[in-house]
Each structure stands twice: as structure tokens, then as C-alpha cells.
Amino acid sequence: MFEQSIATLAKKLRNKDISSVELTRLFLARIAKLDPQLNSFITVSEQRALEQAAVADTLLQSGKGTSLTGIPVAHKDLFCTEGTLTTCGSKMLHNFIPPYESTVTSRIQQAGAVMLGKTNMDEFAMGSSNENSFYGAVKNPWNLDMVPGGSSGGSAAAVAAGLAVAATGTDTGGSIRQPASFCGITGLKPTYGRVSRFGMIAYASSLDQGGPMAKSAEDCAHLMQAMAGFDEKDSTSADKPTDDYLANLSAPLTGLKIGLPKEYFGNGLDPKVADVIMSAVKEFEELGATVKEISLPNLQLSIPSYYVIAPSEASSNLSRFDGVRFGHRCDNPQDLLDMYMRSRAEGFGTEVQKRIMVGTYALSEGYYDAYYLKAQKIRRLIKEDFVKALEEVDVIMGPVAPTTAFGLGSKTNDPVAMYLEDIYTLSVNLAGIPAMSVPAGFADGMPVGLQIMGNYFAEAKLLNVAHQYQQHTDWHLQTPNMAKGA
Amino acid sequence: MNWEVVIGLEIHTQLSTKSKLFSGAAVGFGAEPNTQTTLVDLGMPGALPVFNKEALRMAVMFGHAINAEIGMTSVFARKNYFYPDLPKGYQTSQMDHPIVGKGYLDVVLDDGTTSRIGITRAHLEEDAGKSLHEDFQGMTGIDLNRSSTPLLEIVSEPDIRSAKEAVAYVKMIHSIVTYLGICDGNMAEGSMRCDINLSLRPKGQKEYGTRTEIKNVNSFRFIEKAIYTEIERQADILEDGGRIIQETRLYDPEKNETRSMRSKEDANDYRYFPCPDLLPVVLTQEYVDDIKTSLPELPSQKAARFQSEYALSEYDASVLSSSRAMAEFFENANDVVKDAKLTTNWVMGELSKLLNQEQLDIENSPVNAQAFGELLVRIKDDTINGKTAKDVFQAMWNGEGSADEIIEAKGLKQVTDTGAIEAMIQTILDANAAQVEQYRAADDDKQKKMIGFFVGQVMKASQGKANPGLVNPILARMLKG
Amino acid sequence: MSIDKQDVQKIAHLARLALTEADADQYQHSLSSVLSLVEQMQSVNTDGVEPLSNPLEMTQRLREDVVTEENRRDAFLANAPQAEAGLFLVPKVID
């Protein structure tokens, strides 16, 4: 049951083969049994889940609801959920119960989905391994000694292990795609502005974007139907009608023009990963697509540009965590300054403090032009590379990450090395285009994700391309051993 | 040493929108703490700002009123610093691309001279909350009702050279924003607050001296006094060979002195950068032009019209147009009586006197313009004379009724019946035969001096009700014999 | 590009983060390595390139000036570390 698609489950719910309460209990039981090994949830909201399931069952009884009605999902713990603890993976918010609901979770709830709980993540979405969580590292279901990727590592691990049908994630520099790749699931980072950021705890406002993480492109499309769309509460939300993400999933790929950026296949790419990607590309050729080499010449610069822009915005976004109105406050502050300094030093982990300081430095007097402004100019060069490339091709393909999941603790001592691993994902956020990670095979027993990037607001196209691939492959149907037989 | 004072002002005007600059929470003064807040104003995690349309329109109106360039693309920036009444840890403001660019104002001083004060810019920003220092377990209480209230910060060039000029400039800004209806102008409630940048330099020197900034002065009188005391303080230091420290100071009206704000001395690096949660505000020429054509009459325009339309003196016109409410009162009263000179004299005389005595704004005058005009009509049509009118006005002020009701009730109507006046005069002439003799013997010059005695007697006998316009010629005729 | 420990303490103060001596040593090292990483930007010629702060380059939408929010003070104060009489409490602020 746990490995079935949203469409299948929706049909079973509608046919009363199973009730939402039964389905929810099944997933709650799986979480209780398997999550102690994975640590993918920070909060399991059993009561809320069962209440929502009961409501869903009533709706289904009367033949109402959507394809998500009664489907148990999980939310990354940076979406504010009214009445349910929202920690953002941080000690800072260990006691924060929002009195409001994010637009994303609210829309998914409106569609009738059941919230199982809140998933683990790198603190404030800063990290690529999920080792930066105050609530402990998450393990990769394919190999418990490996990281699940980050920052949406909890969502990726939970979906891969069948602890939730689907989940939400957020992607600032690869935080949906890289864990999706490492855990062998399908993830979509939509165009910047396609999914509302209201109620999403900000890391870097001009890069953050929420998106679906699920077993297949089709499941992602079901979530996008609910998540995507204009929100008047978010000034950066695109006031543009959404596509029907399900309608064109089956469109043939004949004549699809695929670009392979040579910069994605250079030094640093694990040859075994390269092999997986190239065989996936061949598969597309067999489906009628044509392939050409393209160039994204400024790719390398996405790393410095990102690691200035994101920390700069973060340094300001995270100033509100000051121990005054919510969250952690140190014991017995001597005075106001002491309250600020200690509350923040105690509440934030090392990586978060480091990025706050990098950003503070980059914005400070005398350095602004050399860092922040320079990074914004380079950001334009990177965007222009994509715009030019996408005039020639329909989609761009490449690896999501240079390697498969790495060992827990293997890179914690060299964070800059970890930053370099983000090379294939960062530029997409800087440009604001949509991109997916699609399971494309295995290297040394660990999943490899194919990255598919498209033009602004071409989510439906990306889902169509990924879905067609998944109709001809079964990589996305593989289940890690630990998830089986539970 | 002969010092020249150099002053630049930053005036924060609170725009009178219904809702906040970036949220749908209500704006208002005096509500229970933290009851006019939403997650945006409280800086809650995941909260996002959306810009208020009306605040934009008001800022553009102001830009037109000061002859300024309008920022066709303006950008909100974050000013980062930590303070408990600043919930997000940054203030959303405008830095490199303000909504209103360079403009100017011609300020008319008391002595009738005009000086042009340059305005560097005016930008939109959100207000902070309030720290309440009453003792809450020895702690400070934070009320965020004011957080995200829209402010227009108007920054002048350092063109001001005296306290008087500073006050005249602030009064002019006050008058403009209230005319435009973009600010209630209530300084006591903090709707207009002024930061004063002040430095001294030896007369004739080009370079500016080191300046201090006096924060948050909120009355015309305090602005004037703060400037005088700060000039004195700086001059004392400089004349003793000392140096001025660039710092933020606070004016204490009780002690009439400025003192250093130590807590703000912490050298700040505000790390301004464009707010990524807000996008550039881009205006169309049509939008900007539409606002310009629909602008209400401004004080200087009104003053010019008062001079030409009502033949008022420059001084009278500028006093009557200094506030929109005063000008409206004048025009409404004059519509009733249709005598601009009479109306001017009475608005600037009796009405202003009573308002001042009771420290009332003209908006709160117990006698409205219509009733006031009706009183003036009774002067104009000789129902009462000017002296009686003052008593009637006082009675109206006390709520005793309309002018006509009071005149009727108190029997104050002038005696205009010539027969009755003649009879009254005859009685007086009979009772003062000796004085009549003297009068008749005197030459013209002396007669002119002596007639006052008889007029006084008549008025006394009539209890002030005899129409002086009638008394004089009849008396002159009857005295001739 | 490297920064010294004093720089680190200055930045930490601006960001209101209390650092121990040991923390400062560690951050001096890690901040320096990040700054070296981003230093490669300086070799790129960006003359005449407009900075890009929002990928879609949209313009600001305007909200009607209407009050849409009601008073939810108690719900918000429930998360406050310390509150009294409807106020958030902080250690004494000295002006």
C-alpha cells in the first residue's frame, strides 16, 4: 500500500477499498516502526492527521474532494502550520507554535490531504546533508550510513522509505533536487514565484521556492495542482494563471530538444554518475528527443554568487530571531545586549551562525559593492546563460549532484568542499527557472538523479518529460530494503 | 566669534492611511497595546510584506507639492539593526531610489522675506513600535501597534540658517501635508516628528562644522527651543577651543537642554540592501500626472488667490491660508456675509483671540463658520454694532444660541428709529443745557472734540443700542439748534 | 582573503552573536575559507551589467488600503518568552 501512487490511492479511497483513517494509521504505524532508524520526522502530528483523515472520509463518502483528499503527506518543518510545532530544524524555534498557516500547507490541506507530521531538515534550510539539524541527522533509507542530502532530507527520506505518500520541500540552492537525487525520489523546484512563500520561514528570499517531493512526476503533478498559484500575500508571487499539470503528462516527446551543458560533465563529476545520466539521455533519444551540447559558461561562478547572495539575505532574514516575541531566549539575561547575543548564539547552530556572519560581512560598509552587488551582477550573467540556452533547446539535462549520497560525517569538517557539491543546482535558483530531479539509476547501490531544467513557468513541460521517462523506466519504483516488509 | 548656524531637518510624517504600510492591520493612536498588529508587523517567521497603494499615492502627492522629481522606479531597502521595538531586525525603508527626489519649498518668514529651502528627498518607510519604560518587573514593555505604520521621511538640504527659519519650514511642511490630507498633523500624538541636524561654522567659512542630530522633537515650540539651546551649547564648546562630537542627542523640554543618547552611540553599520521580499515600485507617467491634476489647492496658491479674489493683504492672506481648516472657516463664513474685510478682521481678531485663550484648534471652535457668518451679517446690516457683536459672540461661544436668538433674547437690536433717537437726544440736550451753550459758542475744531461727550451720553442712555451711524448726523444737526 | 579574529568579533557583534574565544578561532578559519571561495568573483568583468535582485524582474503589486486583519494579540503573545499586560517584555532598555 505504502508504495502506491497518489492516483491509485485516490481511486481506492473513492472506491472505499480503504478509508483515509485506515491509510493514515498505516503510515503512522510505518513512521513509528521505521523512523527511529531514519529520524526523518521532527514532529508526528498523529491527532491532527487522524482528525483530517476523518474529515476526508466524510468528504469522500459524499463523493467530493480532490485527488489529494485523504492522502497522507508530510511537510518540511519550515512551513508554518497553525497549532503544530514548527522548528525549522533549529533550537531557536524548539517551542514555536505558529498561530497561522503557510499558503502551501493551507492549500494542500484545502485539497483534502492529511498531514502526518513535519519533516527534519538542515537548520533554516542551510545545508546539503541534513547533518545541520538541531534534531539530529537524517539517515538515507538506501544506506543508513549515508546522508539523505539536504536541506529537505527528512522529506526525501520519508518519501523514499514509504513513511508518507508525498512531501513538501523547499529549494534555495538545490534543497529539493539534491536530497531527491540521493534518496531516489522525484522532486520539483518550481519557477521562482510559482509557489507562494507566505508562511515559509525564509532562508534567502530571492532564491527560496517550495515544491513537491514524491515517488513520481505524476505524484508531483498532483501536489502542484494544489500548491501552485498566485498568492496576494506574497509580493514576489507571480500573478499568472497556473497550468493544468496533469493534462499534458502523456504528451509524446517526439522532437523534444534536449541541451546537455558541457560544464555539467567536466571535472569533478563521478564517472559512474555520468554513465547513469548518459544512459538516461539515450532513453530520451529513443523516445524521440534530439540532443545537443550547449554551454552555460558562467556555471562555475554560481558558487561564489550564491554563497554571497544567500547568506546576505539570510543574515537579514534571521535577525527577527531575537528572543523578544517568540523562540529561544537565554536564561537570566544581564541586559538587552546580553539577551540578543546569547539567545542567538545558543539558538542557532554553527552553520547558521557562519552564514549569518558571512552575510553580515558581505553587506557591511565598504564591502557591499565588492560582494553583494558583484554577486547580483554575476547572477544576471548566469540568468542570461540560461535564457540564451533555452532559446535553442526545450529542456536542459545533467546530473543533480557530482556524486551519490556521501557518508554521514564524511564532509562535516570541510564545509567548503560541501558547498562545491552544489555546483549543478545553485545556478537554477539564481536564474529562477524550474528544475526537477528524476531517479535515473544507481551507482554503487545508491540512487542517481537526473536533473531536468526548463524555461520559466514550464513546470508542466518538465513534468511531462519526466513522466514520459518514468513510463519507460522503473527507477522511480525501486524501494530501499529497509522500507520493505514493514 | 561670529557663528553661522547650519541646519538640515528630517521630518517624519505619519501618512493617514487606514491600514499599515505592509499589512492589513489597522493604523490608529491609543489602542490597547499590540491589538493592532498582524504577523507582518510582529516580524513573525514566514510573514511577508505587501505594499499599501494609498501610501504610494500620498507620497506622490507630496512630491508634486514640493515641486520634486518623482521616482518612477523606487526601491525598498532594508536598514538592519537590532532594537526591541524593531521586530524584524530591520526597517524597510528606501535608500538609493526614493519615491520623491529633489524638490524645494519657498518659505515666507514673519518679516515678509522668503527663503528657498531645498528638499533632498522624501522616502517611504515603516515606523517602529514603542518601548514602554514603566516598570514591568524591572523590564521594558514592547508595544508594536505602531510597527509598520507608514511614514514619509522628508529630508531637507542643510539650507536653514536660524531657528525661526526652521520653524517656518516645519510649519509649511505641516500645512502642506494637512492640506493634502496625507497626515493629520497631530504632533502631540507623534504624527509629525522632527530630527534636527545642526552645526556651527565661523561666518564666511565654506566647510561645514561637525554636526549633532537631535532626535524626535515633536512641537514647533520645542524645535525652536532645542535649536537655541543646541546653538548655545555648541558655541560654548567651540569658543572654549573644544570640539563637537558627532552624535545623536535628545532634547529635554523640562530642563530645556539637549543630552547625548549613549545607547545609540554604538557605531552603526546598517547594511542597507534591496529588500528581496518587495519588488521595485514602477510608476507610469499617466499615474503621476493624474495625481498632479487632482492635487488640492496648496497653501501658497490659496494665499495668492485670497489676495486677488478678496483683496487681502499678503500678511492676512498668508495667515488665513496657513491651515486648511482656517482657510475653509474663512471662506465659509465669508460666503454667508460676503464681506471679506469684515470676515478677515473677525477671524484674525475675536475668533483667534478666543481660540488662543482656550487653546483650541479652529476645527474645534464651538462656533462654526455658518453661525459666525450669520453674526457678521448682523454687524453688516446694522442690527448690532461691533461692540455689541463681541458680547453676542461670547454668548454664542458659551452655547447660548445663534446670533439672532441671542440678539432677540437680550434685546440687543440697535435703535434705528430716527424719531426715537431724536427724542433721546432731545432729552440729553435738555439735561445738559450748559454744555450745549458751550458747544454752540465754540469753533469747528473745538466742536469736533466736544461732540464725543454727547455721543457718549446718547449711547449710555440707549444702553449701547443706538446706531452710531444715525446718532452722529442727527446729533450734529440738533446741536446746531 | 582572510580576516582576523578582531574582524570576526566585530561581525559577530553586528549580528548579535556571542562568541567565545574558541568560537572566534573556529569562525575565523571557516569565514576565511568561504571568503576565499567567493573571492573568485573579483576576476570577472561585470562592467555595464545591471545587478539582478529578483529573477523574474517583476514589479511591485499594490494592496488596497483596507483593514483586513483583526486583533489576535493573545494568539501571538502565546509564543512570547515573557509577556505582561499585553506587552512583550525585554530587559530594561536605556535610552
UniProtKB/TrEMBL annotation, chain A:
EC number: 6.3.5.7
Key words, A-Z: ATP-binding, Ligase, Nucleotide-binding, Protein biosynthesis, Transferase
Cellular component terms (Gene Ontology): glutamyl-tRNA(Gln) amidotransferase complex
Coiled coil: none
Pfam families: Amidase
InterPro entries per the UniProt record, alphabetical: Amidase (IPR000120), Amidase_CS (IPR020556), Amidase_dom (IPR023631), AS_sf (IPR036928), GatA (IPR004412)
Domain of life: Bacteria
GO molecular function terms noted in the UniProt entry: ATP binding; glutaminyl-tRNA synthase (glutamine-hydrolyzing) activity; transferase activity
Active site: 76, 151, 175
Keyword Protein biosynthesis attributed: yes
Catalytic activity: L-glutamyl-tRNA(Gln) + L-glutamine + ATP + H2O = L-glutaminyl-tRNA(Gln) + L-glutamate + ADP + phosphate + H(+)
Signal sequence bounds: none
Amidase domain segment(s): 22-463
GO biological process, one term: translation
Complex and partners: Heterotrimer of A, B and C subunits.
Protein family: Belongs to the amidase family. GatA subfamily.
Job description of the protein: Allows the formation of correctly charged Gln-tRNA(Gln) through the transamidation of misacylated Glu-tRNA(Gln) in organisms which lack glutaminyl-tRNA synthetase. The reaction takes place in the presence of glutamine and ATP through an activated gamma-phospho-Glu-tRNA(Gln).
Designated name of the protein: Glutamyl-tRNA(Gln) amidotransferase subunit A
Native source organism of the sequence: Marinomonas arctica
Gene: gatA
TrEMBL record, chain B:
One MF annotation (Gene Ontology) recorded for this entry: glutaminyl-tRNA synthase (glutamine-hydrolyzing) activity
Catalytic activity line of the entry: L-glutamyl-tRNA(Gln) + L-glutamine + ATP + H2O = L-glutaminyl-tRNA(Gln) + L-glutamate + ADP + phosphate + H(+); L-aspartyl-tRNA(Asn) + L-glutamine + ATP + H2O = L-asparaginyl-tRNA(Asn) + L-glutamate + ADP + phosphate + 2 H(+)
SUPFAM superfamilies noted in UniProt: GatB/YqeY motif, Glutamine synthetase/guanido kinase
Its EC number(s): 6.3.5.-
Coiled-coil ranges per UniProt: none
Domain Asn/Gln amidotransferase: 328-479
UniProt record, GO biological process: glutaminyl-tRNAGln biosynthesis via transamidation; translation
Any matching Pfam family: GatB_Yqey
UniProt keyword list: ATP-binding, Ligase, Nucleotide-binding, Protein biosynthesis, Transferase
Enzyme class: ligase
Subunit record text: Heterotrimer of A, B and C subunits.
Family membership noted in the UniProt record: Belongs to the GatB/GatE family. GatB subfamily.
NCBIfam families per the UniProt record, alphabetical: gatB, PRK05477.1-2, PRK05477.1-4, PRK05477.1-5
Function statement: Allows the formation of correctly charged Asn-tRNA(Asn) or Gln-tRNA(Gln) through the transamidation of misacylated Asp-tRNA(Asn) or Glu-tRNA(Gln) in organisms which lack either or both of asparaginyl-tRNA or glutaminyl-tRNA synthetases. The reaction takes place in the presence of glutamine and ATP through an activated phospho-Asp-tRNA(Asn) or phospho-Glu-tRNA(Gln).
Protein name (Swiss-Prot/TrEMBL): Aspartyl/glutamyl-tRNA(Asn/Gln) amidotransferase subunit B
Originating gene: gatB
TrEMBL record, chain C:
Catalytic activity: L-glutamyl-tRNA(Gln) + L-glutamine + ATP + H2O = L-glutaminyl-tRNA(Gln) + L-glutamate + ADP + phosphate + H(+); L-aspartyl-tRNA(Asn) + L-glutamine + ATP + H2O = L-asparaginyl-tRNA(Asn) + L-glutamate + ADP + phosphate + 2 H(+)
Superkingdom of this protein's organism: Bacteria
Gene3D superfamilies named in the record: Glu-tRNAGln amidotransferase C subunit, N-terminal domain
Alphabetic keyword roster: ATP-binding, Ligase, Nucleotide-binding, Protein biosynthesis, Transferase
An example molecular function term from Gene Ontology annotations: transferase activity
EC numbers, comma separated: 6.3.5.-
GO biological process: glutaminyl-tRNAGln biosynthesis via transamidation; regulation of translational fidelity; translation
Subunit structure: Heterotrimer of A, B and C subunits.
Function according to Swiss-Prot or TrEMBL: Allows the formation of correctly charged Asn-tRNA(Asn) or Gln-tRNA(Gln) through the transamidation of misacylated Asp-tRNA(Asn) or Glu-tRNA(Gln) in organisms which lack either or both of asparaginyl-tRNA or glutaminyl-tRNA synthetases. The reaction takes place in the presence of glutamine and ATP through an activated phospho-Asp-tRNA(Asn) or phospho-Glu-tRNA(Gln).
Family note: Belongs to the GatC family.
Protein name as it appears in the record: Aspartyl/glutamyl-tRNA(Asn/Gln) amidotransferase subunit C
Species of origin: Marinomonas arctica
Gene: gatC
